[in-house]
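Supplementary Note 3. Input sequence used for the single-chain structure prediction.
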Amino acid sequence: MHIDKRGIRALGVSESFIKSKSRRSILAGVVMRSDLIVDGFSFARTTVGGTDATASVVELYRRLDRRDINIILLNGCVISWFNIISLGEVHRDTELPLICITYEESEGLERYFTEYFRDEAEERIRRYRENGEREELKLHTGKTVFARYLGIERGDAARVLNRFTLQGSVPDPLRVARLLARRIAQQLSETTL
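The predicted structure, written as discrete structure tokens, is reproduced below.
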């Protein structure tokens, strides 16, 4: 991947759901060029508390049917109330480098898997651990994010995040995807389908 290429495109994927009302979460994917021009979008659903987040992310990517996406950015790897995205599977199935970021330090989620998913706790913990440890990255904005990355070196991951982050800590493809997912989830909760 040529990080310095002017027209590099990232697919930012974020999700939203209303816990008390939703059995399914909305995933929004936004294709954005490094000059911050939105160049496409896609949507999918995943089960709240389920185990289908990985397949949903891959489905969202495939629905785009594009070969010009250079990297995937994920807004966390545990979404939709403990539905774990397998970063290795997404990387393998899309054949794209990916960066998964979160915004706060954490002691981990293993105790919650045991508390909420007793029968599935071991499998969820195994899948969570397979994603590896997060690494702290300082952005040009002065903000810090915590990243896991595959198919890309640490320095290049930081450069990609800096290219796509205009201000604050949230890269713009993820910011726009989160806005879309939230609005769709809100709209769907207000209507009966």
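Helices lie at 53-64, 87-94, 110-116, 121-130, 154-163, 172-190. Strands lie at 9-16, 24-33, 38-47, 71-75, 78-79, 83-84, 98-102, 135-138, 144-150.
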